[in-house]
Amino acid sequence: MAEGGSSLEQSVDGARRQSLDPLLLECPICLEQLRHPKSLPCLHSFCQECLGDYISKELSGKMASVSSFSCPVCRKVIEPMNQSEDKERWAEQFPTNNLAVEMIRQLQKTDESILCKPCENKGNINVPAKFWCKSINTYFCEPCKISHHDLFHAECEPENIIEGNKSDMIKRETSVSGCGKHKEKMEYFCEDHQLLGCSKCIIVNHRKCEEVTSAEDFRDKLVKTSKIDDLLQELRKCTDAMEILIKDIGEQLQSMTDDQETALNSLTDLRKKIDERFDNLQKEITDKLIASFKEEKENLDISRQKCERLMVSMQNTLKSSKDALKDDTVGTICLFQRGRAEVESCNELVLELEKSSRSTNLRHEYDPDILAIDTKTSFTMGKIVVHQQQRRFPCTAYSTPLSERQLKKTERIDIRVPSDKEDCHALGVVLLSGGRIVVADRRNRKVKLFTENGDFHCEVALTGQSCDLCRIDDTSVAVMVVTSHTISIITVRDLTLTVSSNITIPNINEPCLGITYNVDSFVVGTLKSLYSVPKSGGKATKLHTIKSNCLHLGSNVQNGHVFASIYTSTPDDVAVTRLIEGTSTDVLKIGVVKGTTGIDVDREGNVYVCGYNSHNVIQMSGEGTNVRELMTSSDELKQPRAISVLGDKLVITNVSSDQNNFVHVFQLV
């Protein structure tokens, strides 16, 4: 920015300073005295630094090929002489306004204290001068003018430099050397190019021009034709127009300022109302949380009271048996009858609690998008969600292990929905608490959500064809998208599905098929290998090499064991492999099952395996022993593909042409 503007104020008072031409002395950008002034073709001058900054900002964000900019004052389009040079240096290309430089120099020169020359010769060096004689170029104080100048130079009148217009003297002195290029007086004007120049400028640059006159002749021409007066009149009109616009802009600014104040007050008022509203919402949802907790607590208290009352009664029976069994016949018979009734009651209570055994989770859920910028989500306090899921019932002498129960079919759910363009091909299924069933439909490239009663709630589209589907927790599942080597994480909340993230596996080139979740990582099966993939994403680590396709995997959430189903029907080939901390063990070979596909593990560690080619489902222990068939082809089971177990319930998908649009629901009884 220009510097030195204060020196002009110190040397020339306000009235005299107004007579100086501001276009020659003041930068229109920084409004300070010009520093290294550069003149544009439109004759407006600016500080070189100010002009460079303006050009950079004016062209910021525009195409690199831009070749011009607008004058900051008159908006005339200006082209630099060398457009290929960096735009930051365009300002340097324009000519220096030497007239302005000389005027500023003369102004600074006159700012110095002017002393009387005769007094200075006499030794009085601090006497200020008041007059200047042009003919002898000497300054005089008033007494010396009378005693020296008027005595010897009575024929000339010295100029009063105190009362006169200092700018007139500056202009007279600077106009003598107006041409900055040749340091000569500019005496000619080229009408073809509308440029002033000295004799050398005209000879070198304008000798072929048709209209070249003296500067005085062109000035006279302007005066005689009233062009100057007309221009001044237009300038006055323009000045009036600018004053009106400036006033209007000021009024707009004041209106905006008033609006801002009103809006700020409105925001403050709205914030108070929002706080009040959220206080009410928080109270409502708090009341719901307390009510839900109270209801579940009452149910648990009732169950505990039943157990406690029956336990105390049976303990009393055991204590009284010591005396009743001695010689009391009636007492012994009564003891027997009471004890038998208590045992029957115990059996009934165990079965009742086993069937109703649920773990209840109370959770506050809200859409995280309400905290995001540019969200369209309505502001709410969320909701209280009561999640109930089957839990592992404590082992008692009167509870029947799942390994001894039989399979009973309860529902057949039609999973083809109106938006499907193809018959379903459900290669993955997961059963969640509350009877929620999530299905991965390969052909329609979707994941769908149903209830165990067959009600369809929602679906989400996938980027490619899916294969296996696994449970992460009670509110999220993962689906394996085969060709893109991507694991899609899907959130399941309040009977809705949302794709929350996608994990790409960068270093597996073959198709990814089976998937299960185990202790903060995924295990993925391919055509020839088993891999571990971090939950947060990243490169896969190879765990085990297999001979055939791994279409499905299952995990024991109790001990972290992973079971891989190997699709093959070759006798004595491995059908199921178990992984424990990266170490593999073959636990089942082809025999009772062939072409193993779906696989899952129940709460007691029993493994369920689908035989695609043998048309059956088996149950076995985690070591591969105690194998038994739960379903066979005689149960109208064809080509079972995926299976999921939760508590005492199972869901199975089939891909045979007559059953591929259904999911079958079973219960272990």
Can you offer a commentary on this structure?
It is a single chain. This protein has 669 residues and is of the alpha+beta class. It has 4 domains: 5-111, Zinc/RING finger domain, C3HC4 (zinc finger) (Herpes Virus-1, 2-Layer Sandwich), CATH 3.30.40.10; 188-225, no CATH class; 231-390, no CATH class; 402-668, Neuraminidase. The chain is 32% helix and 29% strand. The chain has 13 helices and 36 strands. A 4-stranded antiparallel sheet has the order 13-36-35-34, with no helix packed on it. Strand 3 (69-70) and strand 4 (77-78) form a beta hairpin. Helix 1 crosses helix 6, helix 6 (98-111) crosses helix 9 and helix 12 packs antiparallel against helix 13 (329-355). The protein is elongated, with a radius of gyration of 49 Å. It starts with a helix and ends with a strand. 26% of the residues are buried. Mean pLDDT is 84; it is low at 1-20 and 173-177.
What layout of secondary structure does this protein have?
Elements: H1 5-11, H2 14-17, H3 22-25, E1 37-39, E2 45-47, H4 48-58, E3 69-70, E4 77-78, H5 90-93, H6 98-111, H7 117-122, E5 131-133, E6 138-140, H8 142-152, E7 159-160, H9 166-175, E8 188-190, E9 195-197, H10 199-205, E10 212-214, H11 215-224, H12 227-324, H13 329-355, E11 358-365, E12 383-390, E13 407-414, E14 426-432, E15 436-441, E16 446-451, E17 456-461, E18 466-473, E19 476-481, E20 486-493, E21 496-504, E22 514-517, E23 521-525, E24 529-534, E25 541-545, E26 550-555, E27 562-566, E28 574-580, E29 583-589, E30 596-601, E31 607-611, E32 616-620, E33 628-631, E34 640-646, E35 649-654, E36 662-668
Antiparallel strand pairs: 1-2, 3-4, 5-6, 5-7, 8-9, 8-10, 11-12, 13-36, 14-15, 15-16, 16-17, 18-19, 19-20, 20-21, 22-23, 23-24, 24-25, 26-27, 27-28, 28-29, 30-31, 31-32, 32-33, 34-35, 35-36
Helix pairs in contact: 1-6, 6-9, 12-13
